[in-house]
Amino acid sequence: MNAADAVQPRPAVFLDRDGTINMDTHYLRRVGDVRLVPGAAAAIARLNHAGLPVIVVSNQSGLGRGLITDAEYAAVQARIGELLGESGAHVDATYICPHAPDAASEGGASLCDCRKPGTLLFRAAAADHAIDLARSTYIGDRWRDVAPALELGGLGILVPSPDTDARDVERARDELRVAGSLGEAVELVLGATGSGT
What we know:
alpha/beta
C-alpha cells in the first residue's frame, strides 16, 4: 500500500455514557430503567450527519464490583442503541473499563490502566478507527470524562448533570469548556470542525 492509499486520521467525538447519553441511575442494570437524556439522540444524530465518528468511552465499575452482569450490561447497551436508532442516531464504537476503582493486584499495584481519566481506551479507539486524538472532542458530565483532552489534545467539553461536582464545573471553565446540554456541545464541535449544517 502506498502513501496515497493510507487512511488519514480524522477527528472523532468521544462521549461518556451515563449522565451524558442516558440518565444516570447509578449502576444501570435494568432495561426498563433506560432513559435517554433529553436532546441527546438528536445531538448524536447531528454528529452522525456531519460524518464525525461517535465513540463512547465509559467507566462501568458495576461490572467489576459484581453489581451488573455481562448479560445485563449487554441488554442495557442494546436498549440504548434502539432508543438512539429511533431518532436516526447511532454510536460507532463503545469502549468500557469494567474495573472497580480500587482494583489492585496482590502486590498493591493497580490492575487498571483503562479507567478514565486514563487515556488507554482513547488510544485504543484511535488505533482501531484511525482517529486523530489531538483534533477530537471529549464530552461528558464528570471531570474524568473531559480531562483526557488535556493530555491528548483536542477539545474537552463538560456538560453538567445533577451528579456533576461544582468544583469540576469551575475547573472546566478555567481549563476547558462548559456547555449547558449535549446539543450545545455539539454546536461547539460543529463550529470548531467546520462541519455545521
